[in-house]
Amino acid sequence: MEFRKLGSSGMYISEISYGNWITHGSQVEQDAAIKCVRMAFDLGITTFDTADVYAGTRAESVMGKALKGIRRQSYELFTKVYWPTGSGKNDRGLSRKHIMESVHASLKRLNTDYLDLYQMHRFDYETPLEESLSAFDDLIRQGKVLYIGFSEWDAAQISSALKIQDAKGYTRFISSQPQYSMLWRVIESKVDPLCRQEGIGHIVWSPIAQGALTGKYLAGKKPPKGSRATDKKGGADMISRWVKYDVLTAVQKLKPIAEEEGLTQAQLAVAWVLQNPNVSSAIIGATKPSQIKENVKASGVKLSSETMRAIDGALGALPEKDPAKTVSPNPRA
Fold first, then answer.
1. Per-residue pLDDT at 116 exceeds 80
2. What is the number of other CB atoms lying within 10 angstroms of the CB of residue 209?
3. The one catalytic residue among 54, 75, 147, 170
4. Which sequence spans correspond to the domains of the chain?
5. Is 217 part of the annotated catalytic residue set?
6. Does the pLDDT at position 31 exceed 90?
7. Is-contact 11 175, C-beta < 8 A?
């Protein structure tokens, strides 16, 4: 495993991190989920990402149990706040009330005294931005949070936050967590250049496009039994945008490219996002330890410019690049 600094901070994180978005607490039973976390750690992954909303808060609890007994200083633990975690009017968003209540609940579920990174899971249009940033700064000063970041913000929102942080003397963001893959490249024109300029590193999610880039889904064929596309607990909905004839046909063109590099298609997909020097880490998920063993082999892989052009040629106009696709829905709508 290789390591990269998270943005302009002094903290190193594993360039492949482990996330439990739609697996732990829902798609994967607790014992299997714990085995996956332990396997990730044994294979050199030290960075673990979750969120309070995942599996209705159960994912954080599973992560906390899985990491119990491991020396706290030997891993980096990330979580997020924003989406509803209850039925109350204030159980959502980025108000000071919800942030403070949520961080304490997350710390309890994760069995830790502090978070290495706390992230605003989306942009809140209803709460004054300064209120949210002030609350995050207070958490840093209290020692409950070491670094702060955001997920799926557009360039204008990022710029607005940085101006307030600089004017008020608040601690700056060091991370962005956007969706990024060969098929979803909406950050490249605006968000990525701004983050490079401001010292903000990316921790990207869905680098394998929910599994669509593995090559296991074939155009015109039923999804493999037990795959994410057959999961009725949320996985099938998330991958549905990619399980289409034209996408799956193009993905099969990546197979010889991967073979030429001595990689599986999943490894090629993870390696592709890591070619962006501003990507600090790529988040992988897993339903079984064998998937982790495969994906960590993408660490340290260097793809030639010829290979990168071949990938672009295989996918053609399919990748989504419209920066307007970065949207934060209203959690109270």
1. yes
2. 22
3. 54
4. 3-209+273-301
5. no
6. no
7. no
